[in-house]
Design brief:
elongated, alpha+beta, 494 residues, Hypothetical protein af1432, Beta-Lactamase, 8% strand, 15 helices
Length: 494
């Protein structure tokens, strides 16, 4: 009996310690308990305290062997235990309910976050797509700007078209491109430039307007033409043999129109499907406009150059005609003007004068005696010596030349020779008595050529001089009539 009581006491002691620990923990946790379970938590705390008191009472009864109805104590503890368990279950149900509510809220939050994440991903994809499109547009604008600069800085049509195609092929992600230019005289589209072709067969492209080739249709109808497969037997593509080794499939033809006139056709070739992206097709049409402008500018420039060349030739032919007309007045001097002009140009070029100066020297040489048109034949063709009055009138021909030519703008730079070729190094010449380096260098060279040709040629008033005598004569006049330095240079290069 004693051993049973002792064993019971030993079991209750650790139970009391656990109950004490639970009471301490429950008391500490009560501060953080939500208000909704505050009452139940307090009741549970009191029950734990009650259990603690029961354990202690049981120990006292057992250890002191007091007389007490243990059945009453046990039943009371069991009743309190049932209430405790009920409270624990209630708290557990509340906890589970709150947990489920929290879990539901977390699920809702997760679902919301997932939706937001999907929206964000969709927005990111849309933004990336927009950024890619913006980047493509930026590249397109950069290409258009580069082509604009090319058009304004280069007027060589072949070079312009080649650079143009080199720009657009990578931008459009196509395999090859070509430009066929319209020959307005033959109404034929002819190869102008091409990039990306494996062979040179495309250069044989010659398509007459009115044929059923798509490139001719694009030019005539003035609209973009697109073919999904140029190898399709049902498609008429007359130049298929030229592209047999290229393995192209997709094809686009864009008419190049400037100022309402077709200048040519831009052809785009792809080994895969043709271009279907609307934005790229719009970019392609914008490129077509630029290409047409480039062709128009280059054509206008070339036509202007041709017209300018023809005009210059006409001017120079007119000048040569004037010079020849002057020589016809005096048969003895025929050929003199051409010889002294070429001689002066040759020596001046050897001296290092520019080609631009050569143009004016040549014109001035051809017109050096144009002022003699104002001299009467009785003086100009006189066999004997001139009287002082006649000599004075003859010396006015440089002034007459100046008065005749100065109103003509393009001949003003050539006036140095007609106006100054009778000036002398020592200032004793006419009409203005210029001295030394006041005399234009072209006139100094021409004076040497003029006297050289006059002396070695036979005239009605003297026979042709030997070459050695002319050389000695020119050297004797160095420093008085002629520039001494240029005189020796002239003799060394004649």
């Amino acid at each position: 009996m004693i051993s049973t009581q002792l064993f019971s006491a030993l079991l209750v002691i650790p139970g009391s310690l656990f109950m004490l620990a639970s009471l301490v923990m429950c008391t500490r946790m009560s501060k953080g308990v939500p208000q909704v379970i505050k009452t139940k938590w307090s009741a549970m705390t009191y029950l734990i305290l009650f259990f603690m008191a029961g354990y202690i009472a049981f120990l006292i009864i057992q250890l002191l062997q007091l007389t007490f109805p243990l059945e009453l104590l046990t039943s009371t503890v069991f009743f309190a235990g049932a209430i405790f368990v009920f409270l624990v279950m209630r708290l557990t149900s509340v906890t589970i309910k709150k947990f489920k509510e929290s879990e539901n809220r977390i699920s809702e939050v997760n679902a919301t976050l997932l939706d937001k994440n999907n929206e964000l991903e969709t927005e990111i994809v849309a933004r990336r797509k927009a950024e890619d499109e913006a980047q493509v547009r930026l590249q397109h604008l950069s290409t258009l700007h580069a082509i604009d600069l090319m058009i304004t800085s280069n007027l060589d049509l072949k070079v312009t078209m080649t650079i143009f195609l080199e720009q657009i092929v990578p931008q459009l992600k196509v395999d090859a491109a070509a430009v066929l230019l319209l020959n307005s005289y033959t109404q034929t589209l002819e190869y102008g430039a091409g990039v990306g072709f494996k062979t040179t067969a495309i250069q044989q492209s010659r398509v007459r307007l009115g044929t059923d080739d798509p490139v001719a249709s694009a030019a005539l109808e003035r609209q973009l033409i697109q073919i999904d497969d140029i190898g399709d037997p049902e498609i008429t593509f007359n130049r298929a043999s030229l592209l047999a080794d290229e393995e192209f499939q997709g094809y686009v033809a864009i008419p190049l129109i400037a100022k309402g006139q077709v200048k040519g056709v831009l052809e785009i070739y792809r080994q895969g499907k043709p271009i279907t992206n609307r934005e790229r097709l719009e970019f392609l049409q914008a490129l077509g406009v630029q290409a047409a402008i480039a062709i128009d500018n280059a054509t206008l420039f070339n036509d202007l150059q041709s017209s300018n060349t023809e005009l210059v030739i006409a001017y120079d032919s007119t000048i040569e005609g004037w010079g020849h007309a002057l020589e016809l007045r005096d048969q003895e001097t025929e050929g003199h003007t051409q010889r002294v002009t070429e001689m002066t140009v040759r020596v001046a070029r050897a001296y290092g004068m520019s080609e631009k100066e050569m143009v004016h020297i040549r014109r001035g040489g051809l017109l050096h005696d144009i002022g003699k048109m104002g001299i009467p034949d009785s003086i100009l063709l006189k066999d004997g010596p001139l009287t002082p009055e006649e000599e004075k009138l003859m010396q006015k021909h440089p002034v007459y030349a100046f008065e005749m030519l100065s109103p003509i703008a393009y001949l003003r730079p050539a006036l140095d020779i007609p106006y100054c070729h009778h000036e002398k190094w020592d200032g004793s010449g006419y009409p203005r008595g210029l001295k030394g380096e006041q005399i234009p260098i072209s006139a100094r060279f021409f004076a040497l050529s003029d006297i050289w040709d006059a002396l070695i040629s036979e005239r009605r008033y003297h026979k042709a001089w030997p070459r050695e005598k002319v050389v000695q004569y020119i050297r004797s006049l160095a420093g008085t009539h002629f520039d001494p330095d240029l005189g020796e240079f002239f003799l060394a290069n004649i």
